[in-house]
Predict the structure.
Amino acid sequence: MKTKLNLLLIFLLGITVSGFASTAASADLEYKEQTIDDKFAKVEKLEQYLAAHPEATLETVKKTNPELLKGFDLIETTETNFSPTKEMPIVGGFWWGCCLGIVGLGLVYFITDNDKDQVRQALWGCIIATILWSVGGLWNPFGWF
């Protein structure tokens, strides 16, 4: 009897929670179709103008047709978080080239977007590692090959 009562309570609680969840979800997903159509109409006007005037820049549009930009929040800077790094992660370029050789040199080249100083360090690391491995191969005190 007690387990049936517990199951009934769990079932009722589940229905209540799902009712709250569906109410919250429907409130978040409500939209006004007219508002969206108005916004897209503004975008279409601006798009048509830019298609007709491919040489137009933001400044020329501001001067000649400022009404096309009304209602838009424009960000005029082009700074992004995706700019290439100029430093190699964890260790410097020298150690990437020294430990990974040509692969490390390539990684430094692509990760730093051809930062000449870092690539030069990686190249020196690659050269020094190659020399050390070559000398180690010539001098073999134990006779292992």
In short: The two ends are 80 Å apart (CA to CA). The first helix runs from residue 2 to 29.
